[in-house]
Protein: S-layer homology domain-containing protein
Organism: Bacillus cereus
Amino acid sequence: MYTKLLKSITSLSLIGGALLYTNGSDVKAAEVGVFSDVPTSHWSYPAIKDLASKNIISGYGNGIFGFGDVATREQVAALIYRVLVPNKQGGSFSNDGTRYVLKDGSTFKNPYGDINQSSTMFPEEVLTLTNLGVFKGDENGQFRPKASVSRAEMAQILTNAFHLAA
């Protein structure tokens, strides 16, 4: 199952599959039947359907997946987080923004100048994966949550996330 799941994630990530929350709530393929913008004859359809049924990916809302859209760094973080950490805790930033405090009291240092409650929908995901060594900031200490992910970056992210031989 892990291999199949990894192949599905890799396929979707490399083709730039989009995953977003709509107003903080997931819209799953199982809830909307089928994403209206994903052709059932497309080679990625089974992977999209499978990952949506496992609550790993979601769409924009109104049954739209965002088929063919480019994935952003924050979206990739959310996708990988849902695989590695299936139960999101929720939390908030410290008053000075240098730490993210989870509901269980755990804290993560926020090393990024551009990650805060208003810059990303996925601060817990980004900072958890940074703490696990999956993500690193750029040379300026920025995460760039809205930037698209290059194929080279995706290769490094997957290698880090799943401890693949580099």
